[in-house]
Automatic annotation (TrEMBL):
Taxonomic lineage of the native organism: Eukaryota, Metazoa, Chordata, Craniata, Vertebrata
Catalysed reactions, as listed in the record: L-prolyl-[hypoxia-inducible factor alpha subunit] + 2-oxoglutarate + O2 = trans-4-hydroxy-L-prolyl-[hypoxia-inducible factor alpha subunit] + succinate + CO2
Domain Fe2OG dioxygenase: from-to ranges: 1-94
The name this protein goes by in its record: hypoxia-inducible factor-proline dioxygenase
GO MF terms held by the record: ferrous iron binding; hypoxia-inducible factor-proline dioxygenase activity; L-ascorbic acid binding
Alphabetical GO biological process terms: cellular response to hypoxia
Gene name of this polypeptide: egln1a
Enzyme class: oxidoreductase
Amino acid sequence: MVACYPGKGTGYVRHVDNPNGDGRCVTCIYYLNKSWNAQVQGGVLRIFPEGKLQFADIEPKFDRLLLFWSDRRNPHEVQPSFATRYAITVWYFDADERTRAKDKYLTGRKGVKLGVRKWNKNRES
Protein backbone atom coordinates (compact mmCIF):
# COMPACT_ATOMS: atom_id res chain seq x y z
CA MET A 1 0.00 0.00 0.00
CA VAL A 2 1.28 3.48 -0.84
CA ALA A 3 -0.07 6.16 1.47
CA CYS A 4 -0.04 9.89 0.84
CA TYR A 5 -1.35 12.17 3.55
CA PRO A 6 -1.95 15.58 1.94
CA GLY A 7 -1.20 17.59 5.07
CA LYS A 8 -3.84 20.00 6.38
CA GLY A 9 -4.05 18.04 9.64
CA THR A 10 -4.86 14.68 8.07
CA GLY A 11 -4.01 11.54 10.00
CA TYR A 12 -5.36 8.07 10.63
CA VAL A 13 -7.35 6.91 13.66
CA ARG A 14 -6.11 4.36 16.15
CA HIS A 15 -6.47 0.85 14.72
CA VAL A 16 -4.97 -2.63 14.45
CA ASP A 17 -3.96 -3.91 11.02
CA ASN A 18 -5.11 -7.47 11.70
CA PRO A 19 -7.85 -7.51 14.35
CA ASN A 20 -9.60 -10.65 13.04
CA GLY A 21 -6.93 -13.10 11.94
CA ASP A 22 -6.75 -12.24 8.22
CA GLY A 23 -3.18 -13.52 7.85
CA ARG A 24 -1.18 -10.33 8.27
CA CYS A 25 1.41 -10.93 10.98
CA VAL A 26 4.09 -8.25 10.44
CA THR A 27 3.54 -4.69 9.27
CA CYS A 28 6.48 -3.09 7.43
CA ILE A 29 6.41 0.67 6.83
CA TYR A 30 9.02 2.49 4.77
CA TYR A 31 9.08 6.30 4.93
CA LEU A 32 9.84 8.53 1.93
CA ASN A 33 9.87 12.00 3.51
CA LYS A 34 13.10 13.94 2.97
CA SER A 35 13.95 16.70 5.45
CA TRP A 36 10.97 15.84 7.66
CA ASN A 37 10.58 17.88 10.84
CA ALA A 38 8.00 16.22 13.07
CA GLN A 39 7.90 19.24 15.42
CA VAL A 40 6.57 21.37 12.57
CA GLN A 41 5.06 18.87 10.13
CA GLY A 42 3.62 16.30 12.56
CA GLY A 43 2.65 12.98 10.95
CA VAL A 44 4.18 10.87 13.71
CA LEU A 45 3.15 7.22 13.95
CA ARG A 46 2.08 6.51 17.52
CA ILE A 47 2.11 2.88 18.69
CA PHE A 48 0.28 1.79 21.86
CA PRO A 49 1.85 -1.55 22.86
CA GLU A 50 -0.80 -3.84 24.36
CA GLY A 51 -0.84 -3.87 28.13
CA LYS A 52 1.42 -0.82 28.48
CA LEU A 53 0.60 2.67 29.71
CA GLN A 54 3.34 4.17 27.55
CA PHE A 55 3.29 4.73 23.81
CA ALA A 56 6.03 5.07 21.21
CA ASP A 57 6.21 7.92 18.69
CA ILE A 58 8.04 7.21 15.44
CA GLU A 59 8.90 10.11 13.14
CA PRO A 60 8.32 9.41 9.43
CA LYS A 61 11.89 10.25 8.40
CA PHE A 62 13.30 9.44 4.98
CA ASP A 63 14.69 5.92 4.50
CA ARG A 64 13.35 4.68 7.86
CA LEU A 65 11.97 1.14 7.93
CA LEU A 66 9.62 0.17 10.74
CA LEU A 67 8.41 -3.36 11.51
CA PHE A 68 5.87 -4.39 14.14
CA TRP A 69 3.35 -7.16 14.83
CA SER A 70 0.11 -6.56 12.90
CA ASP A 71 -2.24 -8.01 15.50
CA ARG A 72 -3.79 -6.57 18.66
CA ARG A 73 -0.37 -6.24 20.32
CA ASN A 74 0.27 -2.95 18.49
CA PRO A 75 -2.65 -0.57 18.05
CA HIS A 76 -1.37 2.51 16.24
CA GLU A 77 -2.41 5.78 14.65
CA VAL A 78 -0.97 8.53 12.47
CA GLN A 79 -0.95 11.87 14.25
CA PRO A 80 -2.13 14.92 12.22
CA SER A 81 0.22 15.78 9.38
CA PHE A 82 0.73 19.38 8.26
CA ALA A 83 2.79 18.60 5.13
CA THR A 84 2.47 15.95 2.44
CA ARG A 85 3.59 12.66 4.01
CA TYR A 86 4.47 9.50 2.08
CA ALA A 87 4.88 5.92 3.23
CA ILE A 88 4.86 2.45 1.71
CA THR A 89 3.32 -0.33 3.80
CA VAL A 90 3.83 -4.02 3.12
CA TRP A 91 2.50 -6.89 5.19
CA TYR A 92 4.13 -10.25 5.76
CA PHE A 93 1.43 -12.93 5.76
CA ASP A 94 1.24 -16.19 7.65
CA ALA A 95 0.16 -18.66 4.94
CA ASP A 96 -1.88 -20.92 7.25
CA GLU A 97 -3.75 -18.05 8.90
CA ARG A 98 -4.42 -16.47 5.49
CA THR A 99 -5.83 -19.76 4.14
CA ARG A 100 -8.10 -20.13 7.18
CA ALA A 101 -9.27 -16.52 6.77
CA LYS A 102 -10.10 -17.08 3.09
CA ASP A 103 -11.96 -20.31 3.90
CA LYS A 104 -13.92 -18.54 6.63
CA TYR A 105 -14.81 -15.73 4.23
CA LEU A 106 -15.92 -18.12 1.49
CA THR A 107 -18.04 -20.33 3.73
CA GLY A 108 -21.33 -19.67 5.42
CA ARG A 109 -22.01 -20.16 9.11
CA LYS A 110 -22.85 -23.82 8.58
CA GLY A 111 -19.73 -24.45 6.51
CA VAL A 112 -21.53 -24.37 3.15
CA LYS A 113 -19.60 -22.70 0.36
CA LEU A 114 -21.41 -19.70 -1.06
CA GLY A 115 -21.19 -19.14 -4.80
CA VAL A 116 -17.81 -20.82 -5.15
CA ARG A 117 -17.24 -23.15 -8.06
CA LYS A 118 -14.03 -24.97 -8.81
CA TRP A 119 -12.72 -24.52 -12.32
CA ASN A 120 -12.51 -27.70 -14.36
CA LYS A 121 -10.07 -27.51 -17.25
CA ASN A 122 -12.01 -30.23 -19.11
CA ARG A 123 -15.26 -28.30 -19.01
CA GLU A 124 -16.14 -25.08 -20.77
CA SER A 125 -18.13 -22.51 -18.82
